[in-house]
Design goal:
Length: about 180
């Protein structure tokens, strides 16, 4: 039995210790934000945080996270209270197909945790292990800069409660 913290909750699983963490999280705990991309740890779609650091989980055996903390994109923010990086992603319209975005966001959060004001080169270096087939790299870079600024100033970049308020129509229905 392998136990670890998953998005702040203690979990246990009885799988082969060499099973990739990605498959355990997706198949046993039904958290499908992290994606399977390459299976070799090269594309970043499977990125999660392991004790606060971004790691590629398609090649990380679940035994390696025993008694540790794992965070997926589902543990970063909520639809009502987005993480500042998620806010910046929305503000900059970063996603196109969206497949790589959970990994991109997890890597960006990890970068900003260790470097709160990264240069373009530092962003390029930190994000180089995350591939976006849609080519939204300029928007990703701008979103990281915006998130860094918002983290320093406390500015809210996107508030879903305000942005998604629905007004009643004349017939009383929500528009």
């Amino acid at each position: 039995m392998i136990s670890f913290s998953l998005n702040g909750e203690q979990v246990s699983t009885d799988v082969s210790p060499d099973t990739p963490l990605l498959w355990v999280v997706r198949e046993h705990f039904a958290l499908t934000g992290p994606k399977f991309g390459c299976g070799m740890g090269l594309c970043g779609a499977c990125t999660m945080h392991f004790n606060g650091t971004a790691v590629r989980t398609c090649v990380l055996p679940v035994a390696a996270v025993a008694n540790s903390e794992v965070t997926t994109i589902e543990g970063v923010g909520t639809p009502e209270d987005l993480h500042v990086v998620q806010q910046a992603w929305i503000k900059n319209n970063v996603p196109q197909c969206g497949y790589c975005q959970s990994g991109q966001i997890m890597s960006a959060i990890s970068l900003l945790k260790t470097n709160p004001n990264p240069s373009d080169k530092e962003i390029d270096d930190a994000m180089s292990g995350n591939i976006c087939r849609c080519g939204t790299y300029p928007r990703i870079k701008q979103a990281i800069h915006d998130a860094a600024g918002a983290m320093q100033t406390g500015v809210v970049l996107f508030d879903p409660k305000k942005e998604l308020e629905l007004e009643p129509t004349e017939q009383g229905e929500l528009a």
